[in-house]
Amino acid sequence: MEKHIYQTYVQVLKEELVPAMGCTEPIALAYCASKCFDTLQDEVQSVDIFVSGNIVKNVKSVIVPNTGGLKGIEASVAAGIVAGDSTKVLEVISIVTNLQKEEMRHFLDSISMKVQAIESDCALDICVHLHGIYHNAKVRIAGYHTNIVYIEKDGEVLYESGVVASSDSSLTDRSLLNVKDIYEFATTVAIEDVQDVLQRQIDCNYAIAKEGIENNWGANIGSILLKTYGDDVKIKAKAYAAAGSDARMSGCEMPVIINSGSGNQGMTASLPVIIYALEEKATQEQLYRALIISNLCTIHQKTGIGRLSAYCGAVSAGVGAGCGIAYLKGGDYKTIAHTLVNALAINSGIVCDGAKPSCAAKIAESVDAGILGYYMYKNGCQFKGGDGIVCKGVENTIRNIGRLSRDGMKETDKEIIKMMCD
Fold first, then answer.
1. How far apart are the C-alpha atoms of 155 and 138, rounded to whole Å?
2. Which residues of the chain have pLDDT under 50?
3. Are residues 257 and 138 in the same domain?
4. Could you tell me if 98 and 6 are in contact, meaning their C-beta atoms sit under 8 angstroms apart?
5. Which residue intervals define the domain Serine dehydratase-like alpha subunit in the entry (predicted)?
6. Do residues 197 and 95 both lie within one domain?
7. Does 360 share its domain with 239?
8. In sequence order, which residues have a C-beta less than 8 Å from that of residue 341 and are 6 or more positions away?
9. What is the extent of the structural domain holding 342?
10. Cα(239)–Cα(258) distance, rounded to whole angstroms?
11. 301 with 192, same domain?
12. What pLDDT sits at residue 162?
């Protein structure tokens, strides 16, 4: 593999597989608010919050961790101001005292907070404007969850990135991703170059999945699957991914390792592969290489789709998990490519209507499609070019999915947001 491509793939994994505590959209709000409060250096008198529609959608129904069960945009911002540590980025409210939880509620009761939905070219767009006694401050995040593009204090611009907010252009170039090179990278990479990020993903995501299975979180999709259908590995793979999501959507205060800006996607891409590796007694190196396949295949699909859209990101991650499982089972590049296309043909109709408990059920279905996509090809069956949106060639099919979600579903996204707001 060319050195430039190799280094790019390593860097992409390091950029994407990072820890976050709580659903990443509320946490991005908290991070933005915490950074703004750091800039203000004054007592807050009022708050103006400007957000894109997809932020409204993904913050509305999910519990913000370490807040005592609070939900919503205002709660996320209040948490960042009262208890945030901006140096922790997506773990900005990971350490919160009981006193601070009380202070959050007092802040919400006593401080004027106005939220305005804005039209933006960027699906992920957040601006927090704090008004103090003596000072004002403004911070904007756009493009992806930690991408601060603007900082202002008392009318003076302290930082402006100059990066187009609607793109991920400040990140490592994802256009080099393709399934053939992903397979080659996974089979040849020096494990020490990626071991730390992958082991962290295994440890964090498996821990929250166990919490979701063993205790009462959300809709309990994981435990219902096991109780109803048994503990066959194919059921366990779905159940553990769903259980992690149920815990996280319901405010569990355990970190997860995200993928493409989403903890649900990070868990969906990794947990089914981890479960298969445990069941089949795979070596740790085999698990690492399979996780490279699943994570990079997920990121590759999401590159064309975007961070937030009307297309459910769990589908991309479930497809990625199917590819990782195919690799664990001895599949070559051709097997992985056909697994990916089959899985996309099965499940590319799930819409994203925000972060909430039903994400766990969508995750279970997406993992099922990934696994079925593999077993179809193993049994000599496949969907072919011309079958609906499937094209000849895995890269062409991935491009079609990007086009479907990015262009075709723009109006769908607007209608979903209107329904949720109504």
1. 9
2. 165-167
3. no
4. no
5. 90-417
6. no
7. yes
8. 373, 382, 383, 390, 394, 397
9. 177-421
10. 18
11. yes
12. 67
